[in-house]
Specification:
By secondary structure, the protein is an alpha+beta fold. The protein has 3 domains: 37-49 and 265-337, conserved putative lor/sdh protein from methanococcus maripaludis s2 fold; 54-60 and 184-262, Beta Barrel (Elongation Factor Tu (Ef-tu), domain 3); 69-165, no CATH class. The chain has helices spanning 2-33, 98-122, 128-152, and strands spanning 37-43, 46-67, 75-78, 85-86, 91-95, 153-155, 160-165, 179-194, 206-211, 214-226, 236-243, 255-271, 276-277, 284-290, 293-305, 308-313, 320-324, 335-337. Strands 2-8-11-10-9-12 form a 6-stranded antiparallel beta barrel. A 3-stranded mixed β-sheet has the order 17-1-18, with no helix packed on it. The chain has a 3-stranded antiparallel β-sheet with strand order 3-5-6. Strand 13 and strand 14 (284-290) form a beta hairpin. Helix 2 (98-122) runs antiparallel to helix 3. The chain is elongated, with a radius of gyration of 42 Å.
């Protein structure tokens, strides 16, 4: 009888045990699913942000002149060297004067001939046409002498610095210029600007210039020339920036960075700790808290301002960006906002 009673209650005990285990499993699973990660958020507000763009370029001389004679000849003297400062109109090279002397003699002969012809014309001895022919020969000889004079004493057309010297006295001038003279006050920087800014660039527009050699200094420049055509491949247009260089610390060839301000736009600013980098790409993203969940959001960054990033696209005013606790989050993770 007792054995029968035990057997009778064993199925009931088994069902009770299974029910108890099943209830604990469901309870644990529910607890696991409802665990939320604590995060801190910051509401996006629009802030006026200067639209700064930076361009790289090389410092160039404002004017470059190559000093060479119009015709070949022997160099008699070079009066300057590399690094010499020269003034406009200063004689820098003297060429052989043999041809100049010959031309002077020929001109003197033609002048005497013209004077005799003029006397004959005045007394009716020759026609006006004959006199005009001699006068024309005299004018040609005078022009030739002037040209030879310019090619015998070579002068600098600008104030500047000698940057190249290719010959020595006694050499025959050939295909290269004897000297190169550059005006480096002011200097210029030529940058290539995107066509999207074409209507915003105007002559006189300010620009800030920095060079690696003088990294702590900022030089003030201004737009001096806007090229009228665009590159059809890169869709950019050249812009020349003029920079005062009275102390001549800026030198041609220096690597430079030019910063220009294309106005002010209202943009979202978010802390840098909120911005994450997508593994395997250059994409940047943030997590936005929405209805208790972390929402993966791609963003395009603009300028970094201290410890914040300008967001060009991806966020709107009022979005709640997760600024702490975003490590390890995935799209759709349930989160708990804490102060």
């Amino acid at each position: 009888m007792k054995r029968k009673n035990v057997l009778k209650f064993m199925p009931l005990a088994a069902l009770f045990f299974l029910a108890s285990c099943g209830g604990e499993t469901t309870k644990n699973e529910t607890q696991t699913e409802t665990v939320k990660k604590n995060v801190k958020v910051e509401e996006v507000r629009l802030t006026p942000v200067d639209q700064l763009s930076t361009f790289t370029a090389t410092v160039e001389a404002n004017t470059v002149n190559n000093i060479a004679p119009a015709m070949g000849g022997r160099i008699r003297s070079i009066h300057v060297d590399v690094g010499s400062r020269v003034g406009k109109g200063q004689t820098v090279v003297t060429m052989d004067a043999a041809n100049y002397s010959q031309q002077q003699t020929q001109l003197a002969t033609l002048k005497r001939d013209y004077e005799r012809y003029l006397e004959l014309y005045n007394v009716g001895g020759i026609s006006k046409q004959q006199l005009d022919q001699v006068k024309a020969q005299l004018d040609v000889a005078q022009t030739a002498l002037n040209n030879l004079g310019e090619n015998t004493r070579l002068t600098s057309p600008i104030n500047g610095v000698v940057t190249v010297r290719n010959y020595d006295p006694g050499d025959m001038a050939g295909g290269q210029p004897i000297l190169t003279i550059e005006n480096i006050n002011p200097v210029k920087v030529i940058i290539n600007v995107s066509e999207s800014f074409y209507s915003q660039v105007v002559k006189g527009m300010p620009a800030k210039v920095q060079v690696d050699a003088l990294s702590d200094e900022v030089f003030e420049g201004k737009v001096s020339l806007i090229h009228p055509t665009l590159n059809p491949v890169s869709h950019t247009f050249p812009v020349e920036i003029e920079v005062n260089n009275s102390d001549q610390r800026l030198r041609p060839g220096m690597f430079s960075r030019v910063t220009m301000n294309f106005g002010t736009n209202d943009r979202p600013l978010v802390p840098d700790m909120a911005v994450l980098k997508q593994t395997g790409s250059n994409d940047r993203y943030v997590f936005v808290e929405k209805d208790g969940k972390a929402v993966y959001t791609l963003v395009q960054l603009g300028t970094r301002i201290e410890d914040k990033y300008e967001i060009v696209s991806g966020l709107s005013a009022g979005d709640r960006v997760i600024v702490q606790g975003n490590a390890g989050l995935i799209d759709g993770t349930e989160v708990e906002v804490v102060e």
